[in-house]
């Protein structure tokens, strides 16, 4: 029966390893999908919090492959400057006995509160660290963790060491910095044509109505002319009659 049990154990271990790979792939797929439309830092925090839920813990515990003797699965690659910041900051806070500040939510919020000038310098350093550390992992030459690799980088470049504990203490109560607006994608659109000027067709000014006195005077003049015309016509007829006689 021993050989059969050995086969079952190997098969189960292989199935567990496959299931573990599938689960990790699913988490990575969800992460890559969400980061396409959401903030990368928020997605990482949400996934980290989801993995802490009891139901998720039980699910992962049932599919993860047994750990090898002497440790876990080894160091992981750094995906972003934010990930490096949270890892290094949590390590620095614990090393300096600042457990009151060693909180992932607080660290993530402080990252968004760093002034642009400070954050730019930190990001530049951590991006260089990310490239260096990931290259060492790929080559199998990484002998220490991320904090040790940062110390090596700072010694080699002569850069001043970043005090992560001081950054959290100083900027944790600052207001969140506004995000820079993304540049519009695609070629610039054609400029809109200016609207043609609208010509106002003004009506000619209406003649002013005559005053009441002027109106009466005009009516009187008209009647006088009419009476004179009748008188002249009557005289003309009278002259013609006398001429005929």
TrEMBL record:
Sequence segments annotated as region (Disordered): 175-245
Biased composition (Low complexity): 202-212
Source taxonomy: Eukaryota, Viridiplantae, Chlorophyta, core chlorophytes, Chlorophyceae
Organism of provenance: Monoraphidium neglectum
Descriptive protein name: HMG box domain-containing protein
Basic residues bias: start-end ranges: 225-245
Basic and acidic residues composition-biased segments: 213-224
């Amino acid at each position: 029966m021993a050989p059969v049990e050995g086969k079952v154990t190997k098969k189960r271990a292989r199935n567990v390893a496959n299931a573990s790979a599938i689960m990790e792939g699913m988490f990575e797929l969800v992460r890559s999908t969400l980061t396409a439309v959401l903030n990368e830092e928020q997605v990482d925090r949400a996934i980290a919090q989801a993995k802490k839920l009891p139901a998720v813990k039980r699910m992962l515990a049932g599919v993860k492959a047994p750990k090898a003797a002497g440790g876990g699965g080894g160091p992981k690659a750094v995906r972003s400057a934010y990930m490096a910041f949270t890892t290094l900051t949590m390590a620095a806070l614990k090393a300096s006995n600042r457990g009151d500040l060693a909180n992932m939510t607080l660290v993530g919020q402080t990252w968004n509160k760093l002034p642009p000038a400070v954050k730019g310098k930190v990001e530049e350093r951590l991006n260089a660290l990310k490239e260096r550390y990931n290259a060492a992992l790929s080559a199998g030459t990484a002998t220490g963790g991320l904090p040790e690799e940062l110390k090596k980088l700072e010694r080699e470049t002569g850069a001043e060491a970043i005090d992560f504990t001081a950054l959290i203490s100083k900027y944790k109560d600052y207001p969140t910095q506004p995000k820079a607006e993304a540049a519009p994608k695609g070629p610039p659109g054609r400029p809109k044509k200016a609207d043609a000027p609208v010509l106002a067709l003004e009506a000619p000014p209406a003649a002013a109505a005559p005053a009441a006195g002027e109106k009466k005077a005009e009516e009187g003049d008209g009647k006088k002319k009419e009476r004179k015309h009748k008188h002249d016509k009557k005289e003309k007829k009278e002259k013609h009659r006398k001429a005929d006689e």
